[in-house]
Automatic annotation (TrEMBL):
Binds 1 [4Fe-4S] cluster. The cluster is coordinated with 3 cysteines and an exchangeable S-adenosyl-L-methionine. [4Fe-4S] cluster binds at C66, C70, C73. It comes from Anaerotignum lactatifermentans DSM 14214. One of its GO terms (molecular function) is iron-sulfur cluster binding. Residues 62-190 form the Radical SAM core domain. This is Putative pyruvate formate lyase activating enzyme. Keywords: Iron, Iron-sulfur, Lyase, Metal-binding, Pyruvate, S-adenosyl-L-methionine. Pfam families: Radical_SAM. Its cofactor is [4Fe-4S] cluster.
Amino acid sequence: MNLSTQQALQHCTVCPRNCGADRISGKVGFCGAGTLPKVALVSAHQWEEPPISGTRGSGTVFFSHCNLRCVFCQNHDISQENFGAEISIERLTEIFLEQQSRGLHNINLVSASHFIPQIAEALENAKAQGLSIPVVYNSNGYESLDGLRMLDGLVDVYLPDFKYWDDTLAVQYSKVPHYAETAAAAILEMRRQTKADIFDENGIMEKGLILRHLVLPGHYKDSFRVLDWIRENLGKDAYVSLLNQYTPMYHATEFRNLSRRLTTFEYDKVTEYFLEIGLTNGFVQKRSAATSEYTPLFDLSGVKSAATFQIRKEN
Ligand code: SF4
């Protein structure tokens, strides 16, 4: 672990929670993450947006822990119950290079904000060793500007959520204060870093920004406000993925609105509003996406090196 990674973790303000925890000394903050990166699954993901998954799949690396507490989290096994294995920064570097050698379109860092310093170090090492495919940063939107600046020049494509406009919903459903203003500032920083949206000849995004918004049952008018912000601040050509996949999972059934799936009426209202305010680049999902079948099975595949498995077998 290099000096700048250690320094960032000694008084952790890597994400907007600003806990100040000394993770190097074994203390943990809100996210519960330690010093080493913790990973639950390394896979080839086929179900991201077409410019991300393409035909060969996206090289996802799913990180454990999270700085939000979404009551409907479909990945709660790893985000809230923290399943995963701690690995060294050297192993994370190897994983990035292995994903490239599998012929996948990109490296896709899923929920990584609490491991930004370690990831930045691993990306620098991997790039020095030949990593050349785009790096996608797949985020819940709750990012600090200091954290994002550590990724400047290392990440090619940002894929942030913009989950809520109304902070009451953000606090109630994700236990996060000031979500909208924090996500808005983070997204503008992501736009500053990536500048323009660039695709290769096969339509795979090489550089740019795609915003994701999960439409929640009972709250489609909150989606309107999120789209208004996008239109006003990123322009009509911003790429927006409107997710229809909401499924009541985890603690969602404790909340009246979240206990059911989204209706076609609600989703159509949001897609119609998207067009009405002049946005032009949207991705939509079929209703059949609203099933837990699309939740990955977190089984540590690809996390440990072949050598480690060999040692385990011999034991
Ligand atoms: S990354 Fe974790 S420890 Fe650091 S500020 Fe965020 S929640 Fe706190």
